[in-house]
Amino acid sequence: MRAVVFEEFGKIAGVRDVPDPVPSDQGVVVRVEATGLCRSDWHGWMGHDPDITLPHVPGHELAGVVEAVGSAVVNWRPGDRVTVPFVCACGRCSACAAGAQQVCERQTQPGFTHWGSFAQYVALEQADVNLVAVPEELSFAMAAGLGCRFATAFRAVVGQGRVGPGEWVAVHGCGGVGLSAVMIAVACGARVVAVDVSARALELARAFGAAACVDASAHPGGAGEAVRELTGGGAHLSLDALGSPVTCAASVRSLRWQGRHVQVGLLPTAAGDPAVPMSRVTGLELEILGSHGMAAHDYPPMMDMVRAGVLRPDLLVTSTIALEAAPAALAAMGTAPGAGVTIIEPAK
Ligand SMILES: [Zn+2]
Ligand SMILES: [Zn+2]
């Protein structure tokens, strides 16, 4: 099969032939129809993820068709249209037993712990625990983002964030996950303040229903106060959808009393833990929450909203490229992450 392979961290990847994957007993091999390009892929390529060993094939936001199934797989057959959460759970640890597969103690992540979906085929583990059916009416490009940015945003806003109608929700960082969060919060009846340094990102956020926008480049120390002013005292719920010390602290500073901060953006461990204004956490009784993907069994309410057209992940897709163009696009994520989402179609 053809795959995007990098042999060294930070050095432009190649596209070459590698052996086809074979399914494990409880796994499947999926023919990749669409796979999203994510900032996490860029972090992996740069060497920021300790799980990655070289040579490596990135890619974790995928949708496609089951090509082959392992002998112990019960629920899936070749030809099934599927997607998968970026956290693939083991199905047997204490977290899995509690229904918290998104924090599985023995998780695998395609494109990180093993070769990913910037390829014609990808192997996925524990298919009966992790695969999610993609209905016919959803395109693969639309479904590709569900496993990472969209499901992550859904759990952050609805699950961990417990958004309520009429609440103010601040979203710091309007890339793929941030714009997804804007769309989801608006669909839940919240009033959204979008925060980003990019005019294009804020324009998209406004198009997805944000009630107010804050240009973060005018607030180099963080846009917390600007959000508190706009919302008449602070947001009820605030997300750091980027993952940086500035946006993390700004998100916490955005909150009113008893507000909820959800950390969604991954903070690279190499930079150390960010300074969080904990005095506000005690004084205002704030909640600090994390959100890490979403378990496959939690997908149905999100899928219902997507099928009904209430949520439109397809609107986040701003470009579609072939596998051959993926190495350059991956490298460009660091300097020009852009607004919206790029989808790679390996079959074309
Ligand atoms: Zn991702
Ligand atoms: Zn587990």
UniProtKB/TrEMBL annotation:
The keyword Phosphoprotein does not apply. Residues 14-344 form the Enoyl reductase (ER) domain. Its EC number is 1.1.1.329. Pathway: Metabolic intermediate biosynthesis; 2-deoxystreptamine biosynthesis; 2-deoxystreptamine from D-glucose 6-phosphate: step 3/4. Its cofactor is Zn(2+). InterPro entries: ADH-like_C, ADH-like_N, ADH_Zn_CS, ER, GroES-like_sf, NAD(P)-bd_dom_sf, Zn_alcohol_dh. It catalyses: 2-deoxy-scyllo-inosamine + NADP(+) = 3-amino-2,3-dideoxy-scyllo-inosose + NADPH + H(+); 2-deoxy-scyllo-inosamine + NAD(+) = 3-amino-2,3-dideoxy-scyllo-inosose + NADH + H(+). Transmembrane segments: none annotated. It is an enzyme of class 1 (oxidoreductase). Keywords: Metal-binding, Oxidoreductase, Zinc. Belongs to the zinc-containing alcohol dehydrogenase family. DOIA dehydrogenase subfamily. Catalyzes the oxidation of 2-deoxy-scyllo-inosamine (DOIA) with NAD(+) or NADP(+), forming 3-amino-2,3-dideoxy-scyllo-inosose (amino-DOI). This is 2-deoxy-scyllo-inosamine dehydrogenase.
